[in-house]
Design a protein that fits this description.
Elements: H1 5-11, H2 28-38, E1 44-47, E2 52-54, H3 59-68, E3 72-82, E4 88-89, E5 95-99, E6 105-109, H4 112-117, E7 126-127, E8 136-139, H5 140-145, H6 159-169, E9 173-186, H7 198-213, H8 218-224, H9 237-245, H10 251-258, E10 268-272, E11 275-276, E12 281-284, E13 295-298, E14 308-311, E15 316-318, E16 321-324, E17 333-336, E18 346-348, E19 355-357, E20 363-365, E21 376-378, E22 388-389
Parallel strand pairs: 3-9
Antiparallel strand pairs: 1-8, 2-9, 3-4, 5-6, 7-9, 10-14, 11-22, 12-13, 14-15, 15-16, 16-17, 18-19, 20-21
Length: 399
Amino acid sequence: DYLGKELEEHVKTLPVPVRVLRTGARSGLIRARLLGAKEVTGQVITFLDAHVECTEGWLEPLLARIAEDRTRVVCPIIDVISDETFEYVTASDMTWGGFNWKLNFRWYRVPQREMERRGGDRTQPLRTPTMAGGLFAIDKDYFEKIGRYDEGMDIWGGENLEMSFRIWQCGGTLEIIPCSHVGHVFRDKSPYSFPGGVVNVVMKNSARVAEVWMDEWRDFFFEMNPGARSVDYGDVSSRRKLRKDLKCKSFRWFLENIYPESQMPLDYYYLGEIRNAETQSCLDTLGRKSGENLGTSYCHGLGGNQVFAYTKRQQIMSDDNCLDASNPSGPVKLVRCHGMGGNQMWNYNDQDGSVRHVNSGRCLQKPDPRDVTLPVLKPCDGSVTQQWIMNGSFKWQAN
């Protein structure tokens, strides 16, 4: 009720002219924003979620950056507004946007590399690999030039990563401006439904991102979400043509130059399940977090928690965690990948199937009967209990 005539009467009282545009039918965030963008008369489009509160002086720092360079896309720091009390909590200026293997947006700590690029000055703009997507400003002509939003996407989800990859790969920059703050009401779950279900909608949108922008690394998304292979994500030929016409760079370039901290390895030998030859069970994270034990379970073939990458750096990774053994006798744990070798280096022998922990010289073995979910490290003996199968070409990329 409040979004009808009452809203239209309220905006008439505001000190600046405000127009209320309506789609006529529920269209979702992406198409609603495209409708609004077509009506913009100014040089800069600023997109904001409905559930935000802007602080004093939030807009000027964003516009100043765009005025200096029209290919900059800029975001404020997103402060937290409680969905229960409306308490306003200032967010950290030491996080930037990333993503995981499932193509979920995530906040991560700003790396030392970016701090050094800014000369240690935390008031300077922060170059972020991805944006949350709800709040940003962009030059109107540049928005049109780089392809607006992907109109093949539905409702909401994945559009922020698609635009982030496109901005960087096609010659722009994406920044968080520390001097701009906007509060955002964060909720535990979406208050509205998705036609077709939220999982299917987001999976479709993410599949379009993977197919158009991620090159070979799309396999990470599809291995983690095998169901996405059967999702009808529509025709992406026009988006691929856009990428070609704009002469956009590769996803490898993005990982090497913009997001070398990404948990997607640049070079790897294998991606898939790791199966014990005797028990026919698979290594499994069991949904556990960093610092918790690696597990095994029945091989279900559904990807997800049973997908691991064996990298050229001799890591065995699951998303941003690596297999790690600080104690020669185990247990093997899931620990945030640090890229420095040590306890996270493993040697897989594709002749005898052994997975040897480099530091200890011991081999990964099926679980003891005392805990059938916990693989162990034992002296290497060549037994079938220490044989692990990585199906596939194995030398796919890291030759």
